[in-house]
Design goal:
This protein is α/β, with parallel strands linked by helices. The protein contains nine helices and eight strands. It has helices spanning 5-23, 41-49, 60-69, 85-91, 104-117, 143-150, 171-187, 209-214, 224-227; strands spanning 31-35, 54-57, 76-79, 97-101, 121-127, 156-163, 196-202, 219-222. The protein has an eight-stranded parallel beta sheet. Strand 4, helix 5 (104-117) and strand 5 form a beta-alpha-beta unit. Helix 4 (85-91) packs parallel to helix 5 (104-117). The structure holds pyridoxal-5'-phosphate (PLP). Pyridoxal-5'-phosphate (PLP) is lined by residues 35, 37, 58, 80-81, 164, 205-207, 221-225.
């Protein structure tokens, strides 16, 4: 049996605070996104009731369903999964953050649909930091071109970068990949202007969020440690 998610959430916050204390960081710099993919609405409601506001999903259809069924005031939805052009129109009607943008065609489509919906969307550029073929994201070399392209957009706010480390027990490998993401974030600050204002690094999940915080993460995306193991994907 899983623990009640609210207990898990409290423990998670304690672990974030401890990691911050150890590394001389302020816990208020770390935004916790509760990744609720595959979990029922009731689990989201439970965690919302104990104070969590940011929720993340990685499948467009699942997110769409949950956003249309859960209407709590103050809930903030993040999409962290693979984008598909034909899903963007519906997503932007309610989503607040999209972490997984790495092509101009997605920037253009989000801008167009957000304008139609009269909304403003917070965007993170996903970088492939693991170098694994199957992982989504652009190469670090492609980031400046994307940012320059996005500067003149009206409905997007380009807030930073997102990355996923290799799924491995090798902490040095994970740390190296997070350092790379921090470097990409730092080395593109000169492109701030217009719609681009880089102030977030989304890195760290259940198994590696402590390393991520040590390496400068400002947003961690945590599923399993809050909601328990998933039965599929
Ligand atoms: C599932 C998922 C997470 C959360 O993973 P856990 O290991 O359960 O914490 C974070 N980010 C993305 C992009 C995911 O797909």
């Amino acid at each position: 049996m899983d623990n009640p998610p609210c207990d898990n959430l409290r423990q998670m916050k304690t672990r974030i605070q401890e990691t911050c204390r150890r590394t001389g960081r302020d816990p208020s710099e770390i935004l916790l996104v509760a990744v609720s993919k595959t979990k029922p609405n009731s689990a989201i409601e439970e965690v919302f009731e104990c104070g969590q506001r940011h929720f993340g999903e990685n499948r467009a259809r699942e997110l769409q369903g949950k956003m249309s069924q859960i209407h709590h005031n103050g809930i903030i939805w993040h999409f962290v999964g693979p984008l598909q052009t034909n899903k963007i129109k519906y997503m932007v009607e309610r989503v607040d953050w999209i972490h997984s943008v790495y092509k101009k065609k997605y920037l253009n489509e989000i801008e167009k649909r957000a304008r139609e919906a009269g909304r403003s969307i917070q965007i993170l550029i996903q970088i492939n930091i693991s170098g694994e073929g199957q992982k989504q994201g652009c190469k670090p070399e492609a980031v400046s071109d994307l940012l320059k392209h996005a500067q003149s957009m009206d409905c997007l706010r380009i807030r930073g970068v997102m990355g996923m480390a290799t799924f491995t027990g090798d902490k040095d490998l994970i740390r190296g990949e997070f350092k790379l993401l921090k470097e990409v974030f730092d080395s593109h600050q000169h492109l701030n202007g217009g719609a681009v204002r880089l102030d977030h690094i989304s890195m760290g999940m259940t198994n590696d969020f402590e390393i991520a915080i040590e390496e400068g993460s400002t947003m961690i995306r945590v599923g399993t440690a809050i909601f328990g193991e998933r039965e599929y994907h």
